[in-house]
Structures are given as structure tokens and as C-alpha cells.
Amino acid sequence: MHKFPVRMFSYSSPARESSHGSVWQLTGSKLRGEMRLYCGLSIVILAAAFTAGRSVPAGQMGDSLRAAAAYIARFFEWFGEFGAFCARVARVAFTPPFEFRELIRQMDAIGSKSLPLAALAGAATGVVLSLQTRDSLTRFGAKSMLPGVIVYSLIKESGPVITGLVVSGRVGAGIGAELGSMKVTEQIDAMEASAVDPNKYLAATRVLACIAMLPLLTLVADCCGILMGWIADTLAEPISLRLFLNMGTNGVTFNDFLPPTFKTAVYGAIIGLVSCFQGMRTQGGTEGVGKSTTSAVVLSSLFIILADVLLVRLIIVFFP
Asked: Which of 99, 121, 191, 215 could form a disulfide with 196 if both were Cys (CB 3.0 to 4.6 A apart)?
């Protein structure tokens, strides 16, 4: 008789394997449930330990709710007063007699004196674009597209936004501080007593000057940025200015150039309106002047960034 060797393994039927799998699944689900329970209990214990030594007065929650409600009310009140102020300025801005002399003076103060700052900001932007994009384009074998990237980036987005933010910092602070000082020293009240509308003489002239000067400052920033971009490019790899401009402006149309440039007029309106409004509602002496100046710059910059999102979308829709 032949004796067959005994194999040292155990055979598991499919039913038994399935039963083992179901057992493991039940064990895993039970373990996960226990872990969730432990985590929940730990959070509850930590929260109880954290609040055990802190006694909350009965009226503190009510005070917090009232403070939040007052804050929300002030938020909407500010927007309501700002809308009424914009309506008054828009009404008196185009009603004779016109303050041409004050308008020219404000255009000089806002435009001419902001020219070096806008030119420097545009030049720095052009250099940074040239240095940063050269390496990236070289990796993808598209180094010849560097002039086009610099020109398109500057005229479509970088130039207008940088100019708006730079001018909002300088002009917004100046207008807020000037009108705030006039408000706390009662000069604006004296103008009203002399039958001079401060909204017409002080606010409307500054708003119109900002609207007129921002597109011109944007052109200066774009030109300086393109020129300095060419200088940074030619220092790395010599290229003539004519070839750089031909390669950069190849395919550029007025739809690429005019809408982004003229959208800065909206930035100018934002800077002028917000700065004048914050300055003319100053309270609290010199401390209030500082707060008005800070809020004018911060709100102008914030509204410019928010408006840029909407304006870019409108430009894409109406100027494809």
C-alpha cells in the first residue's frame, strides 16, 4: 500500500473564509465606533476642564449679542451713509458753477506728485516680471515669449492694479489727513456757514482729479515697466529695443490695452470717494485724524482689489 504524505496545512472553505471576513469587518467597525466615542469623550472632558475655572456671568452672553448687533448695525450704517455721500458728490460735481481752479490744483497734487512713485512701481514690476518669468519660460523652451509675457502682464493686469494700490496709499492718506484736519478744526463747518458747499469744493474736485489722473499714471507705469523689463532682459541676453517691442506687442489689440487702462478710472473714483468720506466724517481730534487716514488707505485698497475682480470679468465679457 502506498502511503501519501500528510500536508501540513488546513483547508478553509469559502463559507469559512467569508465568516472570517465578516468577523474582521465587525471587529473593525466596532473599533472605529469605539475610537469615535473615545474622541468625543476626550473633547467633552477637555472642554469641561477648560471652562471649569472660568465663571461666565449671566449677562455676558447678552452683552456679547448686543455688541455684535451694534457692530452689524454700524456696518450697514456706514454703507448707507457712504451711498448718500456718493449721490451728493455726483449731483454737485456736474452742477455749475464749476471749481476749475481747485480741480487743476488737485490734478497737479494727485497726478504730477504721484508720477515718480507710479513710474518707480511700474519699473520695479517690469524688472521682477523679467527676472521671474525668464527661468520658467526657459524650462519649457519658450524663452522667446518673454517680451510678450512682460507686455501682456503689464498692460492687462499688473500695471493698473499696482498703480491703483500705490496711488491709494499716497493719495488716500493725503486726502484723509487733510480733510480730517479740516473737520476737527471746524474749517468745513466754517465753509458751510459761508454758503460754500464742501461736497462741491472739497470732495467733487478731488474725486474728479483722481478719476482723470489714474489712467495717465497707469500709462506711465506701463511704459516704465516695459522699458525696465527690456533692460533686465537685455542684460541677461542682448536684444534690441525694437525687436523686444515687436515681439512683445505682436497680437496686441486695443481691446487688450484700452479697457484695462480705463478701468483705473474706477479705481480713482474709489480712492477719491472713500478718502473724502472718511476724512469728512472724522471725530475725536488728532486721534480721529489718524484713524481716518488709516481707514481711508485700508478701505481704498480693499475696494480696489474687490472691484478688480468684477471689472476683469466685465472686460472678458464685453471685450473678448
From this structure: 191
> CB–CB of 276/203 below 8 Å?
yes
Tell me the three state secondary structure of residue 239: coil
14-17's contacts with Cβ under 8 Å and 24+ in sequence apart are none
b/e map of 282-320 (b: 16 or more CB within 10 Å)? beeeeebbebbbebbbebbbebbeebbeebbeebeeeee
User: How open is the CA angle 52-56-60, to the nearest 5 degrees?
Assistant: 160
Is the preceding omega at residue 97 within 30 degrees of 0, hence cis? yes
Are the C-beta atoms of residues 272 and 175 closer than 8 Å to each other?
yes
CA gap 320, 315 in Å, rounded: 7
Helices (H) and strands (E) in the chain, counts: 13, 0
Say if CB 59 and CB 173 are below 8 A apart.
no
CB proximity list for 260: less than 8 A, separation 6 or greater = 155, 156, 157, 159, 160, 315
Contacts 24+ apart (CB under 8 A), 116-121: 117/166, 117/167, 117/170, 118/163, 118/166, 118/167, 118/217, 118/218, 118/220, 118/221, 119/220, 119/221, 119/224, 120/224, 121/162, 121/163, 121/166, 121/221
Predicted confidence (pLDDT) per residue in 194-227, tens digit: 888 889 999 999 999 999 999 999 999 999 999 9
* Helix (H) / strand (E) containing 226: helix 205-236
The three cell numbers locating residue 286: 488728532
Distance of CA 75 to the CA centre of its chain: 19
Instruction: For 40-64, give the DSSP string.
Output: HHHHHHHHHHHHHT-PPPTTHHHHH
- Residue 40 CB burial class (10 angstroms; 0-12, 13-18, ≥19): exposed
- pLDDT per residue over 57-103, tens digit each? 545 666 777 888 888 888 888 889 999 999 999 999 888 888 899 99
CA torsion, points 132, 136, 138, 142, in degrees to nearest 10? -110
